[in-house]
Every structure is written in C-alpha cells, then in structure tokens.
Amino acid sequence: MKKLESSITNMVLVLVGIALITGSILAYVNHITEGPIKVQAEKTLADGIKAVMGGVELTVAKDDTVKQTIKGKEAVFVIHKAVDANKQDLGCAIESTTGGFGGDLKVLVGFDVEGNILGYTILQHAETPGLGAKADKWFQKGGKGDIIGKNPGRDNLVVSKDDGKIDAITASTITSRAFLLAVTQAYNAYKQLPNDGMTSATAKQK
C-alpha cells in the first residue's frame, strides 16, 4: 500500500510540475506576442478607417466613446473623427456591435459630415461561412444590398422582408438585420456627438 501511495504522490507532483511549466511557457509566449498583436490590430483599424472613409488621405483628429442603453443593455460605440490635410472635417468612422446569427457582429462604418454612408468593413463576425459571412461584400457599392451613399436618418435601412428597401443576404435575413441595425445605431451614436467645432451629422441637420 505504501508503494501505491508513493506512486500516486509522485504522479501528482509530476502533473503539477508539468502544469506549472506549461503555464509559464504560455505566459511567456503571450507576453512576447502581445506587442506585435496590438500593433497589427492598430494597423488593421487604421487601414479600415481609411477604407470606410473613401480611401482618402486622412488623420484621425479625435477618438470619442458614446454609450447608449439599447433594449436594457449598454452599447458602446467608438467614434474616430477624421480630417484631411487641411484639417477640414471629413466625417467619422464608427465601430458598432450587434448580435448576429452566430455571435457578435462588429462593423466599422464611415459617414461624411452629412451622415451619408461612405463605406464599411466587417471587423468581427461569427456568421456561417458562405452565407452570413457575405455581409462584407453584399452591402458594398454595386452589391445587391448596396447601402453606400444612403443616409440612415433619411433612408429606410431595413430589409425588404420587414417592409424596407434593402435586399437581405440570401438565406441570411438574421445577419442582414443585425448588420443594418449596427449601421443605424452607429449613425445614432454619431448624432449624439457634441458640436465641438467639428461639423457633425447633427449640426448639419439643424
């Protein structure tokens, strides 16, 4: 019996040792890769902002965070104010997240100073490949659900199935609704910005 107890003790010690070593290695790898991952994420966002603002040369003059309570839950929108080389306001690129069919759907939407949609890109999604994942192309200029140039404050950004004028992604109505909701909520967050000297969609409409 003593020999058995000794074997079990040794096994436990070995397993604990392996766990500690593995944990240390993972922590070290995480520390090493954390910097490059952060840099890559910042570059991806910067490229995304330029793309959704029409591909023009720009500078992000200010980042704002707007919080709204939507259906009892807090929603956070990150708003990147863009200016050109002459410091003239170009509008804003806004990060907006809603719940899609498979999980969170996060989009970056570009608006000009009047609130018209300049472009968008999908930052994160968990939609079905080949179906809901088509959102990255479907609503682009020339796509079947083209929303570029539309204004959420003026145009009805709702799928045709819900009496709107936007064609939903084939067999992915839930994803389409989530996407259009994310865009509309981004616009509403844009309107909420205070007029701090930079022209906003709200100021233009007054």
Determine the oligomeric state from the structure: single chain
- Distance linking N and C termini: 86 Å
Name the helix and strand elements from N-terminus to C-terminus, one letter apiece. Answer: HEEEEEHHH
**How many strands, which pairing sense, and closed or not: the largest β-sheet?**
5 strands, antiparallel
Q: Mind explaining what this structure looks like?
A:
Strands 1-2-3-4-5 form a 5-stranded antiparallel beta sheet, sandwiched between helices. The longest helix is centred in the first third of the chain and has 51 residues, at 2-52. The protein contains 4 helices and 5 strands. Helices cover 38% and strands 24% of the residues. With 206 residues, it is α+β, with helices and mostly antiparallel strands. Mean pLDDT is 84; it is low at 196-206.
Task: Please outline the helices and strands.
Blueprint lengths: L1 H51 L6 E12 L2 E11 L5 E11 L4 E8 L5 E8 L10 H4 L34 H19 L9 H5 L1
Antiparallel strand pairs: 1-2, 2-3, 3-4, 4-5
